[in-house]
Amino acid sequence: MKWITRERPKIDRLACPWLIRKFVDNDAEFIYVPYDQVQEEAKRLNAIPFDIPDVEFTHYDDQCTFDYIVKKYKITDPAVLVMAVIVRGADTDRHDLAKESAGLQAISAGLSYNHTDDYRLLETGMLIYDALYSWAAHLQKQNHLQNSPFENLLHEVYKKFLEESANDRKKIPGWVKNLKEIIQDQIDTQLTFDLKTISHDLELNPSYLSREFSKYFEDLNFGEYIRKIRIDKAIKLIQNTSCSLTEIAYLTGFSDQSHFTRIFKKHTGKNPSAYRKNLQKSKPGTKSK
């Protein structure tokens, strides 16, 4: 089976070939071409396009192509599931997802810089992901310093130093207050959230904002925080209005009621209709039927 994507791979376009060969098709062939030629060459070569917009094998919501392949082929290997989070964090510049993501991004950028031949880069990348898989399967709980008391002591001293300076590092930047106001305005007016647009308004780099966001917003990434406050608003509407659930889904920015129901249940443990029924039962003078 042939697979095709855009040239100059760095993370997802190296991780996905590794995953496909190891768990989907041992004989898979991978082709790299300029971005504007991917779709045309895919048809000509009868190849499967991946990691580009408007194809099946691509990013969905906050997840990357590697995640989609794991779900598509129902890969349940525990080590692969660990790797998926690392790859997602590196590929989407969300290093808060896994501490290894920053390292993977650095290594991937360095590989791409050192190798101008995409197929040589793929060959080297395969070795990197073999190593990452072995770490995830056998070594992730092993501490590098555990067999060196002296180095471990230095590590503890450094850790204490970091803790003592935590207050300085946790000073809240001015953009955090501005961002909270922007989010509240958009929640109240049902505008579409666009991290790049918001970054531009705040005069911040989108990658920086994505990376720093969770530090000041309840340890949640941008998408998770937005969903949380939308659900908080939905709860208030259920408690204080007679709006239908369809209306509430619209008023809180969800594209359809099924998506609203799924996210609501994830946050509260109940679907919206059950939540409303329990609320009505608990009100004085209301008899359950």
Automatic annotation (TrEMBL):
SUPFAM superfamilies: Homeodomain-like. InterPro entries: ChrB_C, Homeodomain-like_sf, HTH_AraC, HTH_AraC-typ_CS, Tscrpt_reg_AraC-type_HTH. Keywords: DNA-binding, Transcription, Transcription regulation. The keyword RNA-binding does not apply. SMART domains: HTH_ARAC. It holds the Pfam family HTH_18. PANTHER family: ARAC-FAMILY TRANSCRIPTIONAL REGULATOR (PTHR43280), HTH-TYPE TRANSCRIPTIONAL REGULATOR EXSA (PTHR43280:SF2). Residues 177-278 form the HTH araC/xylS-type domain. Signal peptide: none annotated. GO terms for molecular function: DNA-binding transcription factor activity; sequence-specific DNA binding. This is HTH araC/xylS-type domain-containing protein.
